């Protein structure tokens, strides 16, 4: 039984979204923890506040996610002791990529979106695959509902096309309130069609005045 | 990592000086847990199945841990005993500090979480699903850890079949201020459903209670069952000639 190797991973589901704006960043994830066709709990947070201006949302295998988030939080603490300052979001982005690639041959089954404010106070979002390849983008979705969410964000966020030359910043011109509303809308839609997404939505909003958290109810079926 | 001595018929793998089994053998079935007004209740049956044989009928699958916690386990019984040895050592070292501090349920849950995940990473899992309940400083705590390190905390938890059969009942009927009697009644309702529908459960249960005052593990007892349904009385009524 243990030889077959398919007991080592499981997908606990969930969707994570992050949207970067001119001076804010919104990171959101649902709070459902699933296993197969069952629900373990409706109230499990997938979001981790890694640094003052840096928030990680991960979906996938919860054991790996918890280990990864703990790992990064510990590394951040060491960084603070050594440098007497918080890690910037781009620095944390590189650390996350390296941490994931470190386990390239026994991966963390975690699909991550890192959101925060860069050194100039502009919103930044980094999106990852399970083995650490990453890219700075204006918005992203990962997890079981990502295929349902991403097309809506592409259509509605009015960001400059990534194909333009010279390359333009992909942050959305929407206001913070509009971006938060957009997040609520996309999750409501994803909940309708993705069985692993639902119960509650946790939204974390970072801007110059600090970090704010909101909880919205989603469909429980 | 795996040497040339692997045989797919064998249930053991030989690496230099290191052997491990790959299949669970004697297994316990569901464990239920729920918070109630004064603390936390855990319930489990006393069965240890060896495949489809009910080999052992007095296996205590709920044990107290330290002063503040109760641990219930389903899955491989020998791995549960191994976990109890790990926890024994943990609690011993905690007591040896003799500093008036003691490990609470949150800490034990975290330790078990790390333990299970670590064993999974070494490809040598402890084949158990654990329920950890406890009370410390008036705070009630109830959590679950799965075989590969999946874990969560909730007002009611269950392992194995309990997830499918008992959790829906608990979601419907649990509330914040249940008295001990109400909570036991609700647990018995879930246990009865499991008895009827889980092939590996037996009619001999133990309920364990933990409150601020301490742990009480009640003596084993049985539930009344009813089999006198008319459909059972003449099972071939609708299909004469079958059996």
UniProtKB/TrEMBL annotation, chain A:
An example Gene Ontology CC term for this record: cytoplasm
Tree of life domain: Eukaryota
Pfam families referenced in this protein's UniProt entry, alphabetically: Proteasome
Sorted UniProt keywords: Cytoplasm, Nucleus, Proteasome
Keyword Cytoplasm carried by entry: yes
Subcellular location: Cytoplasm; Nucleus
Biological process according to GO: proteolysis involved in protein catabolic process
Cytoplasm recorded as keyword: yes
Function: Non-catalytic component of the proteasome, a multicatalytic proteinase complex which is characterized by its ability to cleave peptides with Arg, Phe, Tyr, Leu, and Glu adjacent to the leaving group at neutral or slightly basic pH. The proteasome has an ATP-dependent proteolytic activity.
Quaternary structure (record): The 26S proteasome consists of a 20S proteasome core and two 19S regulatory subunits. The 20S proteasome core is composed of 28 subunits that are arranged in four stacked rings, resulting in a barrel-shaped structure. The two end rings are each formed by seven alpha subunits, and the two central rings are each formed by seven beta subunits. The catalytic chamber with the active sites is on the inside of the barrel. Component of the proteasome complex.
Similarity annotation: Belongs to the peptidase T1B family.
Protein name, entry field: Proteasome subunit beta
Organism of provenance: Phoenix dactylifera (Date palm)
Automatic annotation (TrEMBL), chain B:
UniProt-annotated location(s): Cytoplasm; Nucleus
Alphabetized UniProt keyword annotations: Cytoplasm, Nucleus, Proteasome
PROSITE patterns hit by this protein: PROTEASOME_BETA_1 (PS00854), PROTEASOME_BETA_2 (PS51476)
CDD domains: proteasome_beta_type_4 (cd03760)
A GO cellular-component term linked to this record: nucleus
Short name of any one Pfam family annotated for the protein: Proteasome
GO biological process: proteolysis involved in protein catabolic process
Assembly information from the UniProt record: The 26S proteasome consists of a 20S proteasome core and two 19S regulatory subunits. The 20S proteasome core is composed of 28 subunits that are arranged in four stacked rings, resulting in a barrel-shaped structure. The two end rings are each formed by seven alpha subunits, and the two central rings are each formed by seven beta subunits. The catalytic chamber with the active sites is on the inside of the barrel.
Descriptive protein name: Proteasome subunit beta
Annotated source species: Phoenix dactylifera (Date palm)
